[in-house]
């Protein structure tokens, strides 16, 4: 497998972490989004959406969208709960991540840490909606150590990617979310990611 | 099953169409988002994200996020391809829908058709990104009658919901996308939705 990813992107790291966790072999092709490498004709032929990550599977076929890729790679593994309801809750968190978390938590961090913007440059919705997303996660961790239950799942992979670097977005202070603060190293340890 | 949905919301109609297509019995509880009915204490206890749709499954447990709900309801049915790659492509379209299509196509329509706004009121990114999303779909339908291959899948359900009413968003003209124009009634017919 070839993974086209930018190492600054949590969406791309999700794919790396799942591949590493499952012991899959792959070539990582560093793809610099700030240099336009996800918008070249060759790249767009592989992923017309022009986004990272994208993968070329071992049979030569392409696949895009971080959460679709990790669901495909992890099929049949312990990263996807065997119980149908737990699996549905995992998917609920993964779709919520892309709609209600990433556009605020990841975007604030990208603008501040990678584009050199300041908090005053951000769309005024970004910080309040990111704060609401963190509170939603804090509440979601009230009863179980991982988001979809007692075991690590792809929901944790999807959400830890940007939550662990949320403070780089300037307007977020994780010290107000004790369950998230405990959950991040729990997920990092389970995935064997360096903190 | 109880489905909490607002009939003006394509995200909610996805759940209704899949339930109808599979012959599932349910009670539809009309939930008026403009009247704040998805933000009451009772509703938030069921779905802390405060969004529609949400369902209460027959065993009493809640589930949210339109695409997670339809994936759960349709498990084991023909709406999810048996082939692993086709299934992954279906998921790619479904995550793309929530990140790159719904925030522009659905939001423009909601602002204009339901909040009484004008095109000038929209975030200037909304129309160009919606146009790019439609072109991505047009390109995606170049080789197959449905988005994930030769048969209807949840990718078509997820994307037809707002694409069929895209023109209500003011800045979109479907006549420029002949494959989408042919695909919409194809999906409506397969789902037995009135055009």
Strand portion of chain A, in percent?
Answer: 5-15%
**Category from helices, strands and their pairing of chain A:** alpha+beta
Helix content of chain A: 40-55%
**What's the total helix number of chain A?**
7
Kindly report how far apart the N and C termini of chain A lie. 26 Å
CATH topology group of the largest domain in chain A: Glutathione S-transferase Yfyf (Class Pi), Chain A, domain 2
Helix and strand pattern of chain A: EHEHEEHHHHH
Strand order of the largest sheet of chain A: 2-1-3-4
| Computed Rg of chain A | 16 Å
Mean pLDDT over the full residue set of chain A: 96
How is this structure best described in words?
The structure is a homodimer of 195-residue chains. The first copy, chain A, has helices at residues 10-22, 41-46, 66-73, 84-114, 126-140, 154-163, 178-191, and strands at 2-5, 27-30, 54-56, 62-64. A four-stranded mixed sheet of chain A has the order 2-1-3-4, covered by helices on one side. Chain A starts with a strand and ends with a helix. Chain A is globular and about 45 Å long. The model of chain A has no long low-confidence stretch (mean pLDDT 96). Chain A is of the alpha+beta class. In chain A, helix 1 (10-22) packs parallel to helix 3 (66-73) and helix 4 packs parallel to helix 6 (154-163). Chain A has seven helices and four strands. The longest helix of chain A is centred in the middle third of the chain and has 31 residues, at 84-114. Chain A folds into two domains: 2-73, Glutaredoxin (3-Layer(aba) Sandwich), CATH 3.40.30.10; 84-191, Glutathione S-transferase Yfyf (Class Pi), Chain A, domain 2 (Up-down Bundle), CATH 1.20.1050.10. Chain A binds chain B through residues 48-49, 51, 57, 59, 61, 63-69, 71-72, 75, 84-85, 87-89, 91-92, 94-96, 98-100, 102-103, 123, 136, 139-140, and chain B through 48-49, 51, 57, 59, 61, 63-69, 71-72, 75, 84-85, 87-89, 91-92, 94-96, 98-100, 102-103, 123, 136, 139-140.
